[in-house]
Amino acid sequence: MSNAYQKNSRRAQPGPVPGQFGVPEQVIVSMAEIAGAAREGLLALAVGTGLQVMAAMFDQGTAVLCGPDGRHNPDRAGYRHGTGAGSVTLGGRRVPVTRPRVRAADGSGELHLPSYELFSSTEVLGQMALEKMLAGLSSRRYDRGLEPVGEAVADAASATSKPAVSRRFVTATETALAGLMARRLDDLDLVAFMAGGVHFGESTCVVALGIDIDGTKHPLAVEQGSTGNATLVTGLITGLRDRGLDVTRPVLAVPDGSKALSRAVKDVFDKPVIQRCQQHKIRNVIDRLPDKLRSVTEKRMRQAYHASPR
Asked: Residue 193's domain spans which residues?
């Protein structure tokens, strides 16, 4: 004989549903481990296959320079000289490899394999560091944003430390800036020209930006100086003219409010239409107000700028 609450308890227990099976916790953990091992195995397989293909390309390049291995070739450009330690770029990191060495047949020195130079190039590392850091990834966390290559390769890789990434970032930005400052501007047809200064401590960087008829923005130049004086900004805008920018056409010029910038624009461009930058005007006004008035003042100024003329 059983009590009523015992009967109700047995009725409340759900029975097995046809077609559904309960999975023990141990099995779920094992499946996760299997999935992780399979992923690691696939990564290792893919990377290992890639490294084997690369090694085969090294051997092919060596055969081109030295001829078939074990066969005399009087017309060969070089001869095999063992192997040496090297490294290649893989997934944003440097991976150690063994590279074949080839000596010139005329004794002039060691010959370089084009395939090894291709894979060992560090340009892609600098470009990757530049892209990731501009996207907000710090140099300290750079390795977390790299492509997965498997634990074995990742453990042996290098060039992912904070100093190494910082050096590549600096080098890449210097190269990009030099290219920007040397680029010809003859093919640009600008309808608007914007210039403004950004302060970093006691230094000022004046940046020039052009906008074409399609609304595409074109970074033009940047100059650094102690202040945003007329000499600095006039040199920047004059440099644009020297690089081929057409300054004879009418253009809407939007300076940040600096009198030196406005004067330089009038001196260099033949037909500029000066428009005070609204964003800088708002910023200059609210920076001089108490905190409690900044939000409402900014809102009303934006409403006034967007109001339809009566």
From this structure: 184-276
